[in-house]
Amino acid sequence: MIPEHTDIPYKISSEGSILAESYKPRQSRCSFSVCLKVGALILIAGIVLSLAFLPSLLSRMVTPARGKRPTAHPGNLPANHTTTVGLGPLDPRLVRSFWGVDYTPHGTQLQFGCGVTQEEVIQDLRLLYQITPRIRLYGMDCNQADYVLNGMRILNINMGVILTIWVDSNQTTYQRQYDTFWRVLETYGGDNIIGVSIGNEALFRKEVSVSTLVASIRDVKKKMIAMGYPKIPVYTSDIRELPKLMPEQDAVLDNVHPFFAGTLPQDAANWTWHYFYGVDQYPTIKLAEKLNQTQTKPAMISEIGWPTFPEDGSIQAAIPSVENQKILLDTFICQANRRGVPYFWFEFKDEPWKQDMFNETRESFWGIFDKDNNLKVSSLPNCTLPVWKKGDLFIPQPKPLDS
Ligand SMILES: *[C@@H]1O[C@H](CO)[C@@H](O)[C@H](O)[C@H]1NC(C)=O
Ligand SMILES: *[C@@H]1O[C@H](CO)[C@@H](O)[C@H](O)[C@H]1NC(C)=O
Ligand SMILES: *[C@@H]1O[C@H](CO)[C@@H](O)[C@H](O)[C@H]1NC(C)=O
Ligand SMILES: *[C@@H]1O[C@H](CO)[C@@H](O)[C@H](O)[C@H]1NC(C)=O
Ligand SMILES: *[C@@H]1O[C@H](CO)[C@@H](O)[C@H](O)[C@H]1NC(C)=O
Ligand SMILES: *[C@@H]1O[C@H](CO)[C@@H](O)[C@H](O)[C@H]1NC(C)=O
């Protein structure tokens, strides 16, 4: 799974129809998404062939807070909040420096049973609120969006949230998450929703055709407009098939991982500026010109991060470690804010379930916090961003690199 190195980090075609497939490290990396794909296969095989082991796996991996047993059903809804509690004491080490942060609450993998609790999500939100105005969720299962939006009401805070209707090759998965999405929108309204992502790298995993994905994006957008939310952007997180997807999306999202390109941590931020411009922003601009669109759609980094463990899980010069994660944090976060690069840091906290599910230790250790919400790095970047305000759907764009 070690990707081949290539000296050409990206290729810009004059058509602006650059294909990330031509970019070898991304193609051959064992990325989060590749691991997801491999992991999904392992999981399916594992579940089908060895159901017998599942109970012990479950009790080991999903230990929900407050002694509740994991449930096999789609999960309870959180109790409606009746009282509002304050944010509590602020952590002096934390600064709201991250433009956005990717977040998966524990206990939201339906196949393991839904162990998510409002209490744990509230503890997460207390930290998240202090480091970022925006979060991005990966799915609707186990009513995770309810816990997050209800949790914000309980804390009396506002953050912008990207909701994802997860897409895989199983139509049942999509329908389930789709139904939940509309229920959530009816329950909580659109006030805190800054985007709706139809899947994450589903094309990359080859779990959906571009025509199906386009149909889903159109369908959700149409319904959002009908329900009175025409301004909330709808998109997917995938750079493949840009010429077909861009006209249908309100923004172009890409998971950008210098780690999987095998860069030194010291080179990772610079690599990312060039990758984002060359693979995401510039092709989007050129395509808009070609299609005579009067306005170019914004491009956005939906994931950037660095794993902290294990050290032998390196890819060329990219070695997982807390020190290296800190180097990327220190060279990327405030610089990206200054440049106007919109990004979501991957990710808030470690996700222990991935280790077993994907037979890959590294996948579990991308958090800036560990699984118990301890900050891993000695300090975080310090460049305070304002608290998110309702209605702020703005996605900044950096100036072209060479200007
Ligand atoms: C929350 O309140 C709404 C009405 O405001 C009600 O329809 C819903 O059933 C309640 N949910 C729970 C879990 O109590
Ligand atoms: C961040 O910088 C501000 C302004 O310089 C300073 O007051 C604050 O103490 C710093 N916070 C941290 C956690 O370093
Ligand atoms: C799709 O998912 C549903 C519910 O999780 C499951 O019952 C069904 O067997 C799956 N179908 C396929 C083809 O995997
Ligand atoms: C930044 O990255 C680009 C493209 O990968 C490379 O050409 C350039 O030399 C790098 N600059 C520095 C200072 O490393
Ligand atoms: C864009 O405009 C040019 C010049 O007006 C025209 O030749 C071309 O067909 C247009 N392209 C599209 C996709 O509408
Ligand atoms: C898990 O990964 C290890 C090391 O890569 C490999 O030897 C082992 O066969 C894998 N196990 C499964 C169940 O795929």
TrEMBL record:
Record flagged with keyword Transit peptide: no
Major place of residence: membrane
Catalytic activity as recorded in UniProt: Hydrolysis of (1->3)-beta-D-glucosidic linkages in (1->3)-beta-D-glucans
Keyword terms of this UniProt record: Carbohydrate metabolism, Cell membrane, Cell wall, Cell wall biogenesis/degradation, Glycoprotein, Hydrolase, Membrane, Polysaccharide degradation, Secreted, Signal, Transmembrane, Transmembrane helix
Membrane topology: Single-pass type II membrane protein
Database matches in InterPro entries: Beta-glucan_modifiers, GH, Glyco_hydro_17
Enzyme class: hydrolase
MF annotations from Gene Ontology: hydrolase activity
Signal peptide limits: none
Pfam families found in the cross-reference section: Glyco_hydro_17
Transmembrane segments: 34-58
Subcellular location field: Cell membrane; Secreted, Cell wall
E.C. numbers: 3.2.1.39
Function description: Glucanases play a role in cell expansion during growth, in cell-cell fusion during mating, and in spore release during sporulation. This enzyme may be involved in beta-glucan degradation. Active on laminarin and lichenan.
Family designation: Belongs to the glycosyl hydrolase 17 family.
Name listed for the protein in its UniProt record: glucan endo-1,3-beta-D-glucosidase
Organism: Phycomyces blakesleeanus
